[in-house]
Amino acid sequence: MHDNNNLDHLFPTLADIPEQYRLGAPIEQREYLLNGELRRWEGPLAAVRSPVFLAGENGDEQVILGSTPLLDADAALAALDAAVAAYDHGQGLWPTLRVAERIQHVETFLARMREQREAVVKLLMWEIGKNLKDSEKEFDRTCDYIVDTIEALKELDRRSSRFELEQGTLGQIRRVPMGVALCMGPYNYPLNETFTTLIPALIMGNTVVFKPAKFGVLLIRPLLEAFRDSFPPGVINIIYGKGRDTVSALMASGKIDVFAFIGTHSGASDLKKLHPRPHRLRAALGLDAKNPGIVLPQVDLDNAVSEAVTGALSFNGQRCTALKILFVHEDVLQPFLDKFSARLATLKPGMPWEPGVALTPLPEPGKVDYLNGLLRDAVAKGANVINPGGGAHRQSFFYPALLSPVSANMRIYQEEQFGPLIPVVPYRDLKEVIDYVLHSDYGQQLSIFGNDPAQVGRLVDAFVNQVGRININAQCQRGPDTFPFNGRKNSAEGTLSVHDALRVFSIRTLVATKFQEDNKELVSEIIRNRESNFLTTDYIF
Questions:
Q1: Fewer CB atoms inside 10 A, N or C side of the chain?
Q2: What is the DSSP letter of 349?
Q3: Strand partners, 359
Q4: CA 195 – CA 150 distance, rounded (Å)
Q5: Of 122, 147, 32, nearest to 79 (Cα)?
Q6: What is each CA distance from 247 to 60, 137, 239, 251, in whole angstroms?
């Protein structure tokens, strides 16, 4: 076991890596998916570097995992043209299929995807440094999400198969696709968060251009053939490259109808502005967050510390739902810091595949320098590093630092660190905490730790109009996926959950007629003779 603060032996030699987790030769990926074919890109490639370094004769050397295509605007627009043609103004094969048939295609894809679990999990570890347990969980949770989406759509369709009679008007209301969707996911959950928009977009009958995250790109490669073989040509197109070369051109074309994006609010705003008809663009956005954890004076400290450590440091704090700032009442500040520090010391640093590892290298180039800058700024303005070795770093690895007392003049108070820095703000009056949340630019979630009903109740009422979710005596999180996941202010647009995502990627359409004999007879004939895919009373089992 590592001495947690001694990072001299953090990185392994090649011989140290267990056989089943080793990667072969670097993967030179030149394929991308266009109109049902794996096309070969002959242009420039982007190197894919692992956050893992190998210890060797010449010191630490970063592992090069391979390369991916750096497509240009023309290639991206060809993918868009394929999606536009497959949608064909809503007349294409995919948008006009019966719901039950679209479900079959998605089920086919899911079966093919499950075959690639080992390959995808291994690439998750090597590409973004996610530990083995969490990488497996991400894959399995994504499969579960697809299953849940299929069930939710069946339920939605069953409800829509009835006719409604209101004020002498007979109608059938169903959800139909929006058009062409652009789906982009984040590097911290490059599979799960991407598929929570991609799968609902597809299953509702939209055609899709999908661009993988900036890190966690190669791990989509084992799924390219499954996508190709499971959907009609042009329904799903997968492109690679720099966003400013590819995505900018897609948005400026005006042909994107739905934009699903998880990233920064500034990135989302810049892209939305490029669309020539923004009123025609529906967006589902998961953006920045600075989720506070609030520790009240009457509290189960052991639980608060346990949840706060997990909330702040799961996947090294690289989660939009991570606890990014902790407000701790002065009366419990010292015991909280002591317990947090002790708990942090039990977290094992190392490589993603090592048993029991909790702290791993960070995938973003420049991240360690950025965190260092935040740390130095806080210390210069009066914060202390509470835990032994906090802020120690080596190459891509940054050992977590617990900082206190943090105040409003420090960058860490406002900036979303998205990494293993844990700022603690001592407070005396709850008004300070309430003001922080009211004036924050972000409004995703927060956590309240306490057991005084009057105080907890007061805070709940103060915050329900500020954030999308309030967690009591628990860390912030997305799941269960059947619950709404959204945010306010700069943190999100639209709501995602299994149920809500189907609605984000569709619109209700109504077929109505006056309730009189000849019309009833006409509609009955259409249904009996199966003349329409829309007007139907079929019940999906």
A1: C
A2: E
A3: 349
A4: 13
A5: 32
A6: 35, 30, 9, 6
In whole angstroms, give the CA distance from residue 110 to residue 100.
15
The values of phi and psi at residue 399, to 5°, are -75, 130
Block residue for tokens 């329904």? 235
pLDDT in tens, 405-450: 999 999 999 999 999 999 999 999 999 999 999 999 999 999 999 9
Digit-coded pLDDT (tens) for 1-47 = 345 668 999 999 999 999 999 998 999 999 999 999 999 999 999 99
Is 198 exposed, middle or buried (CB count within 10 Å of its CB: 0-12, 13-18, 19+)?
Answer: buried
How many Cβ atoms are within 10 Å of 218's Cβ, its own excluded? Answer: 26
- Strand-pairing partners, residue 165, are 170
Contact 350, 399 (CB under 8 A): no
Give the separation between CA 400 and CA 373, rounded to whole angstroms: 14
User: For 121-170, what is each residue's pLDDT tens digit?
Assistant: 999 999 999 999 999 999 999 999 999 999 999 999 999 999 999 999 99
Q: How far is CA 534 from CA 2, 511, 527, in A?
A: 62, 9, 9
Q: Which residues pair with 139 in a beta bridge?
A: none
Alpha helices in 47-131 (DSSP H): 73-87, 93-96, 99-114, 117-128
Cis bond upstream, residue 480 (ω within 30): yes
What is the C-alpha to C-alpha distance for residues 357 and 400, in angstroms, rounded to an integer? 14
Phi and psi at residue 497, to the nearest 5°: -160, 175
pTM: 0.96
Instruction: Indicate the DSSP class of residue 191.
Output: T
